[in-house]
Amino acid sequence: MARQIAVGVAMLAAVALVAWGGSLASITNIDGWYAEAHKAPWSPPNAVFGPVWSVLYALIALAGWLIWRSGARSDAPNAAPGVLRLFVTQLVLNALWTPVFFAGYPLIGAAAWWVALAIMVALMASVILLGITAAPLSRIASWIMIPYLLWLIFATSLNVAVIALN
């Protein structure tokens, strides 16, 4: 039980680190260039993003823990290393998008939005693959990928709109 709690805390910490890094990259730019940028008419108020991502990050951590737990063996290596690598891959891509999109723009201009879009496409592909490969290990973890993917599709539309409108 202690091991399960420790891994759960580690998953939450990893996801919280991603969230914290994203907030550092976006906080100064939300009121900066992003406030002046033309956005999609369907873009929600900035206050929506924090609560939505908080719920999604909690679910992502839960999914990672469920995947780990499904492969855990008391006396052997985890039986789900490939799926866990996919989990880490999507988490890294998630961690990259916000700094590239928000903090990248002041450094390299609109090219940052295109790089962010490429990252987002890779992120969505990794989330789809994670959902598929996690299913035999944890149906709940697999189902958690659906709201995450839907939000990523929505976020992609916002990214594309910023490119098109600016």
Structure overview:
- The structure is a single chain.
- This protein has 166 residues and is mainly alpha-helical.
- It has one domain (2-165): Ferritin (Up-down Bundle), CATH 1.20.1260.
- Helix content is 83%, strand content 0%.
- The protein contains six helices and no strands.
- The chain has helices at 2-30, 33-36, 46-71, 81-108, 111-134, 139-165.
- The model has no long low-confidence stretch (mean pLDDT 93).
Overall 3D form: elongated
Oligomer designation: single chain
Kindly identify the CATH topology: Ferritin
The profile of the biggest β sheet is:
none
Mean pLDDT across every amino acid position: 93
CATH superfamily: TspO/MBR protein
The SS-based structural class is mainly alpha
What's the architecture, going by CATH? Answer: Up-down Bundle
- Number of distinct beta strands: 0
**Could you tell me how far the N terminus lies from the C terminus, measured between alpha carbons in angstroms?**
52 Å
Tally of separate helices: 6
Taking all Cα atoms into account, the compactness measure Rg is 17 Å
CATH class equals Mainly Alpha
Count of spatially separate domains: 1
